[in-house]
Amino acid sequence: xxxxxxxxxxxxxxxxxxxxxxxxxxxxxxxxxxxxxxxxxxxxxxxxxxxxxxxxxxxxxxxxxxxxxxxxxxxxxxxxxxxxxxxxxxxxxxxxxxxxxxxxxxxxxxxxxxxxxxxxxxxxxxxxxxxxxxxxxxxxxxxxxxxxxxxxxxxxxxxxxxxxxxxxxxxxxxxxxxxxxxxxxxxxxxxxxxxxxxxxxxxxxxxxxxxxxxxxxxxxxxxxxxxxxxxxxxxxxxxxxxxxxxxxxxxxxxxxxxxxxxxxxxxxxxxxxxxxxxxxxxxxxxxxxxxxxxxxxxxxxxxxxxxxxxxxxxxxxxxxxxxxxxxxxxxxxxxxxxxxxxxxxxxxxxxxxxxxxxxxxxxxxxxxxxxxxxxxxxxxxxxxxxxxxxxxxxxxxxxxxxxxxxxxxxxxxxxxxxxxxxxxxxxxxxxxxxxxxxxxxxxxxxxxxxxxxxxxxxxxxxxxxxxxxxxx
Length: 472
Fold this sequence. Notes:
Layout: E1 18-24, H1 29-33, E2 58-60, E3 66-68, E4 70-72, H2 91-99, H3 115-128, E5 144-146, H4 152-160, E6 162-164, E7 167-168, H5 175-184, H6 203-209, E8 214-217, H7 230-233, E9 240-241, H8 243-252, E10 258-261, H9 278-293, E11 301-307, E12 346-349, E13 357-358, E14 368-369, H10 371-381, H11 388-392, H12 431-442, H13 456-466
Parallel strand pairs: 1-10, 1-11, 4-5, 6-13, 7-14, 8-9, 8-10
Antiparallel strand pairs: 2-3, 6-12, 11-12
């Protein structure tokens, strides 16, 4: 098997009965996994090249002097809260990071040289507006990238199964449009988080029509995703649960065909959104994997760990400009949907995957993005594509090459890290908690109002108490 193994080639996809997706928040590939194979010259033990960090990458700072990438080690101050403040993540900020200007040039030639200057700008306005920032945070911190020792869980899984080093966000912008692509293959032209719901059909509706089971699990509250698409809002309550329900379903052999997992959205939760505690996300990845591996469905499971978008964090690989527009929706800001977003970490986990796999499509081919999961689901269960984007996507079935499931455990002996601290954002409602609260407020009966949450505790209580109550 080579790094350019053709996706969709002869595989064991037909043996997969459960496709489980955990989508975390706002981290780039280099930031989380760029150092994964640096100690072996960016070559995996099986001899596959890996497009990670050499250590010589840099970006210009405010004076024009080069700011190099640097490793975030377990002894780095505030390691698990790096880069210390939320980088810019919208369309204009992403353009600034990859092109050096808020608007894309023609042709859109990415230099990936604007991360430090854009972060300096973002730190300036966040400080003025009173955002939570770790003391001592500097614009250069956006060049920090975790070592495998700092993130032992996702790193062990990436080495022990397959890492995708050419998996890109579906659109070069923030969370909600990318999550819309992940479940419906389009954001209907939307390019920011101001639009909180989408009218496009989701993959869940296709699975229902085909008689294939599915379930969306929130972590410590009913899932936000339930409120995002009409076919999910109208689905039976049995299709939704929380993390403890997922653990029980995995243990009892009752996992559905498709599982979509959300993290906890609070500032003290495990979503890994900057500047929240990355170690808590390591625990979540560990707990999902453990529940799946210890359950009776493990040998027929494909577990995908991915991130919705890069979150403004450094990555050195220019996003391809060969994306297929999903539909005829007019893009906000004049965007034509032919560009992918920057790389995000994606790890494919199954006992049918050889250890040490680096998985990507051949050079020049359509790269993996979030709609590759849709394509894999569609191929596995004979479903029609939702949009032109997932019709053109490449599936990941070709990574499943082992006829006999492995019995070893790459997480054996791995100790989950702990930060020993609390994010400075603690006590404040998170952005996605505010999104969720707004969606709930829109669904209240006439004359019933609920104040917008002012604190993390108020937001958490609102989502816990109201999440299942005001359905369409």
